């Protein structure tokens, strides 16, 4: 039996030594996932709040999270822990009013900024330009189908790997990239129609 599976089995058997080992082995990873998620939404959380969130994740795992884990190796466990940490951190940001809306994300150089860059749209500079671009982008995203929006949300906001996203859609990673690019092209077309600050191609012709 894999060491990870054995450790989880012992934890589920209420083995205190195994649980202490589990906490020691994965605290740093969960801590990192929490900070990365907060940073991805343009927010910083202090060490006390991060410690508390980390403890909350372990409480979730102890309560029912480990029982629901279906993997059998360390990489699968790390991905599972990350999903729990990300979801819990986002819920915390929302409840504590530290969750950033689209306007704030643009201003904080967060996920929406990366989306705008991939759409090949010039990043707005002034505050008014940021607000105007944010409102236009909201309208563009609203025109997408549910699956199209989900692809962008997972790629830019949920901190999931390409493999994790493709698994959720039951498609290959290559197919995921094709669909993502198709959605981005669709957004570019919408942006062109609405004249959403496109990047100039002057001087870029080879």
Number of strands: 0
What characterizes the major β-sheet? none
Number of domains: 2
Named at the architecture level, the CATH assignment of the largest domain is Orthogonal Bundle
Using the coordinates shown, work out and report the CATH topology of the largest domain: Rna Polymerase Sigma Factor, Chain: A
Query: Strand pairing plus helix content: what structural class?
Result: mainly alpha
CATH class of the largest domain: Mainly Alpha
List keywords for this structure.
206 residues, mainly alpha, Rna Polymerase Sigma Factor, Chain: A, Arc Repressor Mutant, subunit A, 10 helices, globular, disordered C terminus
Report on the architecture of this protein.
- The chain is mainly alpha-helical.
- The protein has two domains: 93 residues, Rna Polymerase Sigma Factor, Chain: A (Orthogonal Bundle), CATH 1.10.1740; 92 residues, Winged helix-like DNA-binding domain superfamily/Winged helix DNA-binding domain (Arc Repressor Mutant, subunit A), CATH 1.10.10.10.
- Helix content is 72%, strand content 0%.
- It contains ten helices and no strands.
- Helix 2 packs across helix 3, helix 3 crosses helix 4 and helix 8 packs across helix 10.
- The protein is globular and about 60 Å long.
- 24% of the residues are buried.
- The C terminus is likely disordered.
């Amino acid at each position: 039996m894999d060491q990870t599976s054995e450790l989880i089995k012992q934890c589920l058997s209420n083995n205190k030594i195994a649980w202490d080992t589990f906490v020691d082995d994965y605290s740093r990873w969960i801590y990192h996932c929490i900070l990365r998620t907060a940073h991805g939404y343009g927010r910083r959380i202090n060490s006390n709040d991060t410690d508390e969130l980390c403890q909350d994740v372990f409480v979730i795992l102890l309560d029912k999270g480990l029982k629901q884990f279906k993997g059998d190796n360390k990489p699968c466990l790390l991905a599972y822990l990350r999903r729990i940490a990300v979801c819990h951190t986002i819920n915390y940001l929302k409840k504590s009013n530290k969750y950033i809306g689209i306007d704030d994300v643009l201003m904080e150089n967060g996920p929406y900024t990366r989306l705008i860059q991939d759409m090949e749209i010039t990043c707005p500079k002034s505050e008014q330009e940021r607000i105007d671009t944010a409102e236009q982008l909201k309208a563009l995203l609203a025109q997408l189908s549910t699956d199209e929006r989900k692809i962008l949300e997972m790629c830019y906001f949920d901190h999931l790997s390409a493999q994790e996203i493709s698994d959720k859609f039951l498609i290959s990673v290559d197919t995921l990239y094709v669909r993502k690019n198709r959605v981005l092209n669709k957004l570019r077309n919408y942006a062109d129609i609405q004249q959403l600050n496109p990047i100039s191609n002057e001087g870029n012709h080879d």
